[in-house]
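Example S7 (structure tokens).
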């Protein structure tokens, strides 16, 4: 099975963005509320099964193609460990306005309250960022349950942002965000997000985005949804372990992701993976065929592509499920 080049897949969202994704891909913008490009997605938007899942060139949904014949996509070891499910979602995000403070449930909460095997731990790889661009991640001090409920009820974004760590980001950075951690992304950042394959999240502010409280709570009572938010402090050492050039060991039970810069070539592990070319040109040489690469290319590399090698003067990000 050859690697599969994928076009844009941008379900409509409540926040602004999209022009930077079009520019990155070398395409014309299609709107100002398409800030997410879901790559090789077997996941749909929460409450909207028609949006989010990737459609292949033959008209099939990727998730249907994988379910019908998982071995060439995933390989026998993955199937034996995880079943016929890639267990991975990759997105491009063009954050055109400061996102709301929000958090995602972990697997334990998702299993009990949402009937899902997946929560949403995630990581961000910064592709472009204006000077001074920043994110907010984790409370600096413990926050009482009643205080958090009050902030959310009043949608007091200023109080919540003041309570979170503020982290400046630049191209080349990566930041791991474990499930449960409250966070927000500032404006004018283009990033790649690798995550567990779910669309769960509780918003701690919603009105300024034209949403109501029902949109903010994953279909749960709001007080119940708030229980997924980590209220304990994230210390400086813990926060530092989540950032840098490479992701921490703790992330590898959810996904794997890394920057790749062949000099001049680099062997690639045989497994289901997603490759996004950030800069430059080159090629991916596999047992199943060769793919020419340039900035903005996004492709799914199935297990049956075989052994492969990345060559050229380029920078890419490779994302994969946990190692079986």
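Recovered sequence:
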């Amino acid at each position: 099975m050859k690697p599969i080049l994928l076009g844009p897949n941008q379900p409509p969202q409540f926040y602004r963005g999209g022009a930077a994704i079009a520019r990155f891909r070398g395409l014309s913008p299609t709107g100002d509320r398409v800030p997410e490009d879901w790559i090789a997605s077997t996941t749909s938007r929460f409450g909207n099964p028609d949006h989010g899942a990737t459609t292949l060139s033959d008209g099939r949904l990727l998730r249907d193609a994988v379910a019908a014949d998982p071995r060439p996509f995933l390989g026998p070891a993955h199937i034996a460990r995880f079943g016929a499910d890639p267990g991975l979602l990759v997105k491009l995000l063009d954050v055109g306005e400061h996102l709301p403070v929000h958090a995602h449930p972990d697997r334990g909460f998702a299993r009990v309250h949402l009937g899902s095997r997946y929560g949403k731990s995630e990581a961000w790889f910064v592709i472009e960022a204006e000077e001074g661009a920043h994110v907010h991640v984790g409370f600096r001090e413990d926050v009482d349950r009643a205080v958090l409920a009050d902030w959310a009820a009043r949608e007091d974004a200023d109080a919540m942002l003041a309570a979170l760590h503020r982290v400046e980001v630049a191209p080349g950075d990566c930041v791991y965000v474990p499930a449960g951690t409250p966070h927000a992304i500032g404006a004018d950042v283009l990033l790649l997000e690798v995550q567990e394959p779910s669309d769960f999240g509780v918003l701690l502010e919603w009105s300024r985005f034209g949403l109501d409280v029902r949109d903010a709570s994953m279909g749960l009572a709001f007080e119940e949804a708030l229980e997924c938010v980590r209220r304990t402090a994230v210390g400086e050492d813990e926060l530092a372990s989540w950032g840098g050039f490479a992701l921490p060991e703790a992330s590898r039970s959810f996904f794997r992701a890394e920057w790749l810069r062949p000099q001049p070539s680099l062997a690639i592990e045989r497994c289901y993976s997603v490759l996004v070319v950030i800069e430059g040109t080159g090629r991916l040489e596999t047992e199943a065929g060769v793919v020419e690469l340039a900035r903005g290319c996004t492709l799914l590399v199935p297990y049956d592509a075989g052994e492969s090698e990345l060559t050229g003067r380029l920078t890419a990000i490779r994302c994969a499920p946990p190692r079986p």
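Notes on this example. The domain at 4-251 is CATH 2.60.120.10 (Jelly Rolls).
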